[in-house]
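Hello,

I think I submitted the iron/sulfur cluster job twice by accident. Can you confirm which output corresponds to this input? Input:
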Amino acid sequence: MIPFDYRRAIDVDSAVAAATANPRAAYLGGGTNVVDHMKLGITGPGMLVDITGLPLDEIKELPDGRLRIGATVRNSDLAADPLIRRRYPVLSQALLAGASGQLRNLATTGGNLLQRTRCVYFQNVTTPCNKREPGSGCSALEGYTRYHAILGASADCVAVHPSDMAVAMAALDAVVVVTGVHGERSIPLRDFHRLPGREPERDTVLDHGELIIAVELPALPARARSSYRKVRDRASYAFALVSVAAVLELEIPENRGTVGAHPAQPPGPALIKDIRLALGGVAHKPWRASRAEEFLRGKEAVEENFRRAAEEELDSAATLRDNAFKVPMSRNTIVAVLRDLTAAQAGKEQQR
Amino acid sequence: MEANVTLHVDGEERSAVVETRTTLLDLLRDKLGVSSPKKGCDHGQCGACTVLLNGRRATTCLAFAVAHEGASITTADGLADVGDLHPVQQAFLDQDGFQCGYCTPGQICSAVGMLDEAAAGQPSHVTPNGGVSDPTGIKLTDAEIRERMSGNLCRCGAYVNIVAAIRQAAGAQAAGAQAAGTAADDTQAAGTPTAGTDYSGDRS
Ligand SMILES: Cc1cc2nc3c(=O)[nH]c(=O)nc-3n(C[C@H](O)[C@H](O)[C@H](O)COP(=O)(O)OP(=O)(O)OC[C@H]3O[C@@H](n4cnc5c(N)ncnc54)[C@H](O)[C@@H]3O)c2cc1C
Ligand code: SF4
Ligand code: FES
Ligand code: FES
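Support: Only one job matched these inputs. Its output is below.
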């Protein structure tokens, strides 16, 4: 491993100044991704600015109902937080579906967002890879592509983003708050990660030296329910083949039967008031399924519609040698998640 | 580039001058002679290097030592004295929770950390409803134990007995004096641990 200078950040401003001034500087969060990459020779920063001592480790409720998650909050603490578990179960579930207990105790919110692809050719410095070494070529195109993208890929890179947490955050309309030498900016999570295009070496829209300080979650409507489902090669401790994060808000028709009498008719199917859907394991970024959402808004919450919406979204899928299975797998997972959420919400409304 | 790093390892203060690129695992093993945590994969994948870092389980192969100046570390070795084993260690012996033993120190630290997490009410991927609606706390079923221990691989495949050992330890930690250690049938819940124990300090 290439030697480096280690700097413990004392405050945000000096950390940003130090990292921005040095083109070979990188931030150090829990280290579970960047240290691995330094060992593998994928990256060789000349300076690490350790941000874990900064006061960015809180989860705070803002006066307007939003929740602000500090960049150094550990994945385990975020997943276990009572507010997150109650209001944003999709996020807690996504975090708990990722990595392992001892890794989540180290991994930070900021580091999780910025973890890099697990594409085996990216991780193996002996094989060409445009993301690691721009212009060298993409080994995956002619290689083993079971874990690669079916949506939004380019001729230069077909890798997927590995984070579970980020998929949930995409469905929650989270906002990433970053700060740089030119000040602070807020980036909607759905615009934070990039599609590969001609520049697969750039995972996100962050500039060099910009520091993630927080992720903010908007309040959800009281009746919205959310969940995360991850499909993988093992039951635990494996990256997603496909994952689905969904936030669903239904309108349950009134049961018009008079009190005491037999219900005149069973209530009709619920209507989808609002839906937010994101897919993991299928693209270079958490994939917000806008076409499916658009199809579903205002429609009846029935399986046939879920399936048609998923097919609409996956219409543009382009498969590689080994990953055609991801198309039906994505469709089926979307349908299953929406069906379960609908059943759960309908059940809950009837108890009111 | 070098730095002086001081750690509290198994109750003893230990210092060494290390290169910044030295991992916590390499500092422990190579510089301080603390060989209880093992190097399996060196890439965060196997859990053999797990210790309790400031009381929480953590892998040490993807952590730079300089970033953990002043940390308190408990290894499997530091959990006990000879003849006075930690209940998790005793359970691994009682249940034959190992074969070659290479993964064992990591398994034991992970299990100790995991039992505390469960006792504190932290949910896992398989906890029904994220543990939100159940006021009685986390029930450490075998499914829970397997999920929570999935970051510790065992190349000998001693998993069945590892689960049995942790089931026994969880039972022993449980509230009430329900006799533990009967390695009951596979589907039985192990009971709910209550008071977490702080292993971050010294035991010397
Ligand atoms: C064996 C294994 C299995 C895993 N399985 C999963 C899985 O199933 N699902 C999943 O989602 N993840 C998984 N992970 C990945 C894990 O979630 C990430 O490694 C972790 O979230 C990264 O967080 P960190 O704090 O350790 O980041 P670091 O390694 O410290 O940093 C990662 C990157 O982010 C930068 N950075 C860190 N913080 C900031 C900040 N605040 N502002 C700007 N830049 C910053 C660093 O410079 C670096 O480039 C797995 C990892 C391992 C090792
Ligand atoms: S898919 Fe992307 S990351 Fe993988 S080899 Fe091709 S360019 Fe590299
Ligand atoms: S040696 Fe650290 S996880 Fe394998
Ligand atoms: S006992 Fe041999 S690796 Fe687990």
